[in-house]
Specification:
Layout: E1 2-10, H1 15-23, E2 35-39, E3 49-54, E4 60-68, E5 72-79, E6 82-93, E7 96-106, H2 110-123, H3 125-138
Antiparallel strand pairs: 1-7, 2-3, 3-4, 4-5, 5-6, 6-7
């Protein structure tokens, strides 16, 4: 099992602001510049499947496997011989909001998928999280 995590604490942003952006999967490219498009035709609920198309890579199908309203969600991407889980969490730390993103890769071919996909995602955690929060603050009013 391979696990990488990134956390940062933000002031002046609320869980509901972040949750609104997280659950609007079709608009993820607004805060994740590495995405060409995302498409969710269902509601944001456990069992829903969405398509995510990274720039310069094939589209993948991702399942929502765990959701706690305005707290966290986990998604799962199945690759040949491996699975990649993305866990997105938030909780209050005093008057601030702590965001954490964790990527876990399992399976016999995990090394290949870490090299091809997961490490590239991890390398952009900080930028994507900051951009997400900036967008939430712009859309505040």
């Amino acid at each position: 099992m391979w696990i990488r995590s990134y956390s940062k604490v933000y002031q002046n942003v609320t869980a509901s602001q972040i949750w609104k952006l997280w659950t609007d999967i079709n608009k993820w490219p607004l805060w994740n510049a590495d995405l060409e498009y995302c498409k969710l035709d269902q509601s944001f609920k456990v069992g829903s499947v969405f398509t995510l198309k990274p720039k310069g890579a094939p589209a993948v199908q991702i399942s929502l496997i765990e959701i706690e309203h305005e707290k966290m969600f986990t998604d799962c991407t199945k690759f040949l011989g491996a699975k990649m889980y993305g866990k997105h969490e938030m909780h209050l730390e005093g008057n601030a909001l702590k965001l954490t993103t964790t990527i876990t890769v399992t399976g016999i071919m995990k090394r290949l998928w870490i090299k091809l996909v997961a490490q590239k995602i991890v390398d952009k955690f900080a930028l994507q999280m900051d951009t997400l929060v900036q967008l939430a603050l712009i859309r505040k009013g």
